[in-house]
Write a structure and sequence with these properties.
Blueprint: H1 3-17, H2 26-45, H3 50-58, H4 67-80, H5 85-100, H6 126-147
Helix pairs in contact: 1-2, 1-5, 1-6, 2-5, 4-5
């Protein structure tokens, strides 16, 4: 999926989770889920050297797209910022879920290095754009419903 689709996916999760944790505000929850929904690709793209090693072992969508990594990120977030841990984990997991529909990921590493793919939606294609737009509309509707 393209970045804007991941962003709207994170926004949707943020609206769903916003205010669910004591001490978290809606803007902070939305910010954390949207940032976390972009982080797996951002880290994969912006760690030169490390990416080459990871790609050599598991290919594109490596360590940042594993459930093991998502779990570790959730635990670290819980230790450092428990009020937004669910938002960080939710945004990260939404990213992985969306990528399962556009080429798949090695989701269950180290159990298997088999790439799990639920569909083959072309990144940047019409369906990718539609899914992103649909999630944006759903996030807006849920947000409006929450404040009314």
């Amino acid at each position: 999926m393209k970045g804007s689709t991941h962003l709207t996916g994170g926004l949707l999760v943020g609206v769903i989770l916003s205010g669910s944790s004591p001490g978290s505000s809606v803007p902070i929850s939305l910010a954390m889920t949207t940032l976390a929904s972009l982080a797996p690709d951002w880290l994969q793209i912006n760690l030169p050297g490390a990416n080459n090693v990871v790609r050599g072992v598991v290919g594109h969508r490596g360590f940042t797209h594993w459930l093991l990594t998502a779990g570790a990120i959730g635990i670290v977030a819980w230790v450092l910022a428990p009020q937004v841990a669910a938002c960080i984990a939710g945004g990260w997991l939404m990213h992985i879920l969306l990528d399962l529909f556009s080429g798949g990921t090695t989701l269950l590493w180290p159990v298997t290095t088999h790439r799990i793919c639920l569909a083959n939606i072309k990144t940047g294609g019409k369906l990718d754009t539609f899914i992103g737009a649909w999630m944006l509309v759903m996030a807006a509707l849920l947000f409006v419903r929450r404040i009314v």
